């Protein structure tokens, strides 16, 4: 599949055009950094040698010129990054399935992130980009990169300090689920606090509207904690086969995944540290291995629908 | 003196917590059982429609249809025990399964939109019943663990709480499904 579209003449000419653009941006950026770097070095050297005033002025000149160069290229590099996503990633998507599209400046909005109930903390700073949407068989799905953080403030002797903590960084995958349901079911990776929370809610007192749900699959229970507001519905969604499929999907992912089933959709959060679908600036576009990682993540997301068997629509939902 | 009062107070509170938790679990078992009933009722309600649609297209399945209607009438009559009802339900399930397989012989019926809808609703309710049974078994296990393990076992003994058995598959359903048997039923 990959070779097929990468050998395509139209695709190669897109890459060649973008490569010219990339070289221009890369050389301007390099120049800018060199001016800034040598300006600072010059200033420091002058100060050490005892001629601070003239050398600082010359050094400052270099830093300012370098800054201007970098500033003037901003718009162009943004356009280049956009074109890369649209044309290069776009073609890779189309070669996998005609229905797949990418919108670089859209994503999963914060309201949807909060209402998915995947995470218990509400974000104070939220960024999302690269919305990929499409259809695999009968199942519509979309996914996007999300970075959500919350802040804490502490009083120090120099005033208030704000600390940012990560709630989630990675890809959130959303698919239309193949069964009808009304409630909320959430599957989270099991930690020590979660394990205690389950024991507490089952034996002492249950907070909130969701109870812990103890499923029959011991392996699944060791890896995940399941909450829901309807014991029967949670089991209707998480059939023994579905639990196995989620378990094996989790094994393929580097970090533990979280899932939620709400509003007739399923949400899956894959924590990832890398920023995907970004155009390289200092590396050539003509490297055949350029898209390997991006394509493998797209393929992974696309295959989830089959992996979780979401195309089987025999339960009265089409 | 004060220490003794504190200890007695603590024991009293622990006692209340254990007692309440046992009662909660016992009620959960009843509640989960009624959930199965609700799902079964939902499925029984589908049968008349299913029979109506199938009747229009087939001439050869009359005996199966009559059997299904009879079984449903018995199962919903109200004055039967839970065990009887479970047996009737199992019979009903296997008859309908047989019917769904035989539908292959009637292309018109298979293409009928009403029938397709009913078929998927049926599968849906089958899976919901399975989910309700699993939920029931989970709450039974939870309750049994609570009354058999210390310290719950002391209270359970005093209150005469008995362990409840989990639902198991009927012997008939445990056999491997054979298409041949289905066609012959």
TrEMBL record, chain A:
Which InterPro entries does the record match to this protein? DUF3137
Which protein are we looking at?
A: DUF3137 domain-containing protein
Pfam families the UniProt entry points to: DUF3137 (PF11335)
Q: Which residue ranges traverse the bilayer?
A: 32-50, 56-74
Q: Which organism is it from?
A: Pedobacter punctiformis
Q: What UniProt keywords are attached to this protein's entry? A: Membrane, Transmembrane, Transmembrane helix
UniProtKB/TrEMBL annotation, chain B:
Q: Where are the transmembrane segments?
A: 6-23
For this protein, the record's SUPFAM superfamilies field holds: LemA-like
The family database entries (InterPro entries) matched by this protein are listed as: LemA-like_dom_sf, MamQ_LemA
- Location in or out of the cell: Membrane
On the tree of life, the source organism's domain of life is Bacteria
Q: How does it sit in the membrane?
A: Single-pass membrane protein
Name the keywords, alphabetized: Membrane, Transmembrane, Transmembrane helix
Keyword Translocase found: no
Disulfide bond found in the keyword field: no
Q: Which Pfam families does the record match to this protein?
A: LemA (PF04011)
Family indicated by similarity: Belongs to the LemA family.
Q: What is this protein called?
A: LemA family protein
**Species the sequence originates in:** Pedobacter punctiformis
């Amino acid at each position: 599949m990959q070779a097929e579209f990468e050998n395509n003449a139209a695709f190669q000419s897109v890459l060649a055009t973008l490569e010219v653009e990339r070289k221009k941006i890369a050389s301007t950026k390099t120049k800018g950094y060199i001016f800034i770097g040598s300006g600072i070095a010059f200033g420091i050297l002058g100060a050490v040698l005892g001629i601070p005033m003239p050398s600082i002025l010359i050094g400052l000149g270099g830093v300012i010129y370098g800054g201007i160069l970098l500033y003037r290229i901003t718009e162009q590099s943004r356009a280049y990054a956009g074109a890369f996503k649209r044309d290069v990633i776009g073609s890779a998507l189309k070669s996998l399935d005609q229905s797949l599209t990418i919108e670089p400046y859209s994503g999963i909005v914060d309201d949807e992130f909060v209402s998915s109930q995947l995470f218990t903390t509400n974000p104070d700073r939220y960024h999302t980009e690269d919305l990929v949407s499409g259809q695999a068989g009968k199942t519509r799905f979309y996914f996007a990169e999300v970075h959500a953080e919350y802040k804490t403030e502490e009083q120090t002797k120099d005033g208030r300090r704000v600390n940012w903590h990560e709630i989630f960084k990675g890809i959130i995958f959303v698919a239309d689920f193949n069964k009808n349901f009304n409630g909320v079911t959430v599957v989270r990776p099991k930690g020590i606090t979660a394990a205690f929370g389950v024991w507490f809610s089952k034996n002492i007192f249950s907070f909130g509207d969701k109870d812990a749900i103890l499923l029959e699959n011991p392996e699944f229970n060791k890896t995940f904690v399941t909450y829901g507001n309807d014991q029967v519905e949670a089991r209707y969604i998480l059939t023994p086969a579905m639990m196995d499929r989620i378990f094996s999907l989790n094994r393929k992912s580097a970090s533990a995944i979280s899932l939620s089933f709400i509003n007739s959709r399923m949400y899956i959060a894959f924590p990832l540290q890398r920023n995907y679908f970004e155009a390289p600036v200092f590396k050539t576009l003509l490297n055949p291995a350029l898209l390997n990682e991006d394509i493998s993540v797209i393929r992974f997301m696309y295959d989830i629908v089959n992996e979780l068997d979401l195309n089987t629509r025999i339960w009265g939902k089409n | 003196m004060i220490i003794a009062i504190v200890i007695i107070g603590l024991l009293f509170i622990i006692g209340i917590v254990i007692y309440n938790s046992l009662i909660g679990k016992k009620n959960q078992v009843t509640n989960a059982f009624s959930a199965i009933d609700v799902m079964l009722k939902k499925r029984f309600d589908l049968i008349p429609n299913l029979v109506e649609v199938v009747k229009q297209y087939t001439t050869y399945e009359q005996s199966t249809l009559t059997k299904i209607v009879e079984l449903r009438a018995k199962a919903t009559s109200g004055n039967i025990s839970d065990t009887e009802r479970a047996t009737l339900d199992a019979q009903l399930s296997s008859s309908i399964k047989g019917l769904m397989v035989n539908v292959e012989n009637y292309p018109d019926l298979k293409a009928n939109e009403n029938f397709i809808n009913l078929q998927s609703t049926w599968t849906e309710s089958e899976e919901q019943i399975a989910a309700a049974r699993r939920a029931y078994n989970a709450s039974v296990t939870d309750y049994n663990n609570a009354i058999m393990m210390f310290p719950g076992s002391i209270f359970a003994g005093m209150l005469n709480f008995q362990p409840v058995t989990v639902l198991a598959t009927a012997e008939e359903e445990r056999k491997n499904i054979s298409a041949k048997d289905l066609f012959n039923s």
